[in-house]
Structures are given as C-alpha cells and as structure tokens.
Amino acid sequence: MRTDRTVVVTGAAGGMGRPFVERFIANGDTVLATDTSEDALAELSEAIPVNRLIVKASDITSENDNAALAELAREKTGRVDVLVNIAGVYPVQGFLEMSVEDWRKIVDINLTGTALMCRAMLPLMTGRGWGRIVNIGSASVNEGVAGQAHYVSAKAGVLGLTRSLAREFGAEGITVNLIAPGVTVTPNAAKALPKAIQEAQIEKRAIRREEKPEDLVGAAFFFASPDANFITGQTLVVDGGLNMS
C-alpha cells in the first residue's frame, strides 16, 4: 500500500521514533518529524535525504510549539492524516524519592504533551472525514512497575485519553488507538533501565528476545491504514506474549 498521506511523528529522532519515520517515508508518505534535539533531527535528515521528510524541533509540552508545528503542516500539505505520538521519558525512581517536580515532569511529557499534540493536530483532521491517531502507551499499565509510578500513571492516563478521544471524534471518521509495548530496547532505555528489568522481561515473554522499536512499527502502520477503518479506542499489546488476554 503506497499513499501520499501527511504523517506527524513525535519523538521522531530517537531510537524509538526513527523506524516509524523510515516506514512511512518508504511508503510514499510525507512525514513531519519532531523532536526536542535539533542535532538529532539534522542527523535524521542526513540519513533520510528526501524532500518528503520535514523536520522541526519542538517541545510537545508547549502549546506554542505545537501550534507552530500544526501551522507548518498546514503550509506544507494543508492537512494531517496521521499522528503518531511516540515522545516520552521513562526514568526509574523510587516513589518515596520522587519530588513533586519529578512527578509533574514525567506526567507533563508523557500524558499532557500527548494530549496537547492531539489538540493541536485534530483541527487539521476534522471536517475531512478521515484521520488516524496512534498513541504509544505501555504494557506496564497492566501489571505495574516498581520504581516507575509516575511513568505508569501517565501511561494509564494516555489509555484514558485514547478511549475518550475515540468516543468524541469517531463520528468524524477519526480513529484513535493505542499500542502498548513491553520494555523496548533503545539506546536510552538500555541506559535508564537496570539490566535485571530487561532480562526479567525476556524471561517472562513467550517470544524470548529483546523487544525492539521495529517490532512496533507494523502495528502503527496497520492502525494508520484503511484496513483499520472500523477499529477505534483499542489497545494492541505488543510485548512478545508477556501479557496475554
């Protein structure tokens, strides 16, 4: 399936986001890739030298930045067909050691930033009868994780946001779904998460190997496709069979 959609990807220049950008570009789509690091976005542009890749540094927790990103999409293509919310942080920190500022920062990036990005891009979908939002959640919501109460709580909020937006915008042909991965090994995750956590995940999986960002791309591509026209408000757990239902 080759298309000419306009796809916005947040967290696009990191280890998690780059494979998503590559897949949509390979499909013929125009990708507006955003991340906080201008240097990382410049490297992404060098690695994927096509004019259908547009990069812009921004902070998803900033309403002004998100508005500027939406305006750029409007200028370049006049629409947004697909929004993939990947940007997030996942530190390990004991609950009693978290300051209020620690808590707010993680919730602000993982939950509020996702909501603000949706709010900025939805006006470019409404009225056209078609749109796709794919949020990256976490399978940790199903089981809880010691040392990540702020992160797991924020991702539980993303699940609620996904379902609420699916209800609110379904009549306009806009679907909103969530992918819930297990511990996904990126360079940042490898540094942030203790090796014991990563190894425990592998031991509990039916498919006993590390989960990679590439394992999530197919699910997002499906949710963004016409094949998923009648699917909304759903969670697809992609964790190698760690959680089964």
Protein described:
This protein is α/β, with parallel strands linked by helices and 245 residues long. It has one domain: NAD(P)-binding Rossmann-like Domain (Rossmann fold). The chain has a 7-stranded parallel β-sheet with strand order 3-2-1-4-5-6-7, sandwiched between helices. Helix 1 links the parallel strand 1 and strand 2. Helix 4 packs parallel to helix 6. The two termini are 30 Å apart. The mean pLDDT is 94. One of its GO terms (molecular function) is oxidoreductase activity.
Provide tags for this entry.
245 residues, Rossmann fold, globular, alpha/beta
How many angstroms does the end-to-end distance come to? 30 Å
Could you say which structural class the secondary elements and strand pairing correspond to?
A: alpha/beta
The amount of beta strand, in percent, is 15-25%
Using only C-alpha atoms, the radius of gyration works out to: 17 Å
Unreliable parts:
none
The average pLDDT value, as a whole number, equals 94
* Tally of alpha and pi helices: 9
Give the class-level CATH name: Alpha Beta
Task: Give the helix/strand layout.
Elements: E1 6-10, H1 18-26, E2 30-35, H2 38-47, E3 53-57, H3 63-76, E4 82-85, H4 100-121, E5 131-136, H5 140-143, H6 149-169, E6 174-181, H7 187-192, H8 195-204, H9 214-223, E7 235-238
Parallel strand pairs: 1-2, 1-4, 2-3, 4-5, 5-6, 6-7
Outline of this structure?
With 245 residues, this protein is α/β, with parallel strands linked by helices. The protein contains nine helices and seven strands, in the order βαβαβαβαβααβαααβ.
